[in-house]
Amino acid sequence: MIVELRGLRLYGYHGVNEIEQRRGQTFVYDVWLEVGERGADDLIEHAVDYRLVAEAVRQVHERRVALLEALAAAVADALLERFSPAWVKVRVRKPEVRPAGIAVDFGAVTVERGR
Predict the structure, then answer these.
(1) Contacts from 34-37 at CB under 8 Å and sequence distance 24+?
(2) Spatial distance between the Cα atoms of 65 and 60, rounded to a whole number of angstroms
(3) Is-contact 94 67, C-beta < 8 A?
C-alpha cells in the first residue's frame, strides 16, 4: 500500500534570492510512502496516519533552507525516520517561480529514498 498526500500547501521563506527569504511564498508538497500492509486491518494504530505525515512535513518546512533539493531531501529523511516506510518519494513545488522571467506552471524537485 502507498500512503499518498498531494497538494499540502505551506507558506515559507526558502530560496536563494533575498527577496524570497524576506517575502516568502507558497510551497506545495506531494509525498508517497510505501507502507506494506500497515492499516489493512482497519486499525488506525497500525496504519501510517496521513495527518501525522502532514505534521512531519510541516515541522521540516519550518526550517529555512536555500535550495528545494535540500528541503525535499530533509522531508524525505524525516519521513523515513518517523514512519519506517519501505520507500518514500517527496516532491516540493514552487508555484510562483519565474526562472529568468519566463512563465512556467511551477518549479519542482523530487527526491526518492528507500531502505
Answers:
(1) 34/1, 34/2, 34/85, 34/86, 34/87, 34/88, 35/1, 35/2, 35/3, 35/83, 35/85, 35/86, 36/1, 36/86, 37/1
(2) 10
(3) no
- Active-site choice (94, 96, 100, 111): 94
Report whether 75 contacts 60 (CB < 8 A). Answer: yes
In order along its 115 residues, the chain shows pLDDT tens digits of: 999 999 999 999 999 988 888 999 999 999 999 999 999 999 999 999 999 999 999 999 999 999 999 999 999 999 999 999 999 999 999 988 766 677 777 888 999 999 7
What is the Cα 39 distance to its own chain's centre? Answer: 22
- Round to whole Å and give the CA distance between 33 and 40: 15
CATH topology of domain 2-114: GTP Cyclohydrolase I, domain 2 (3.30.1130)
C-alpha span between 90 and 56 (Å, rounded) = 12
Q: Is 94 a catalytic residue?
A: yes
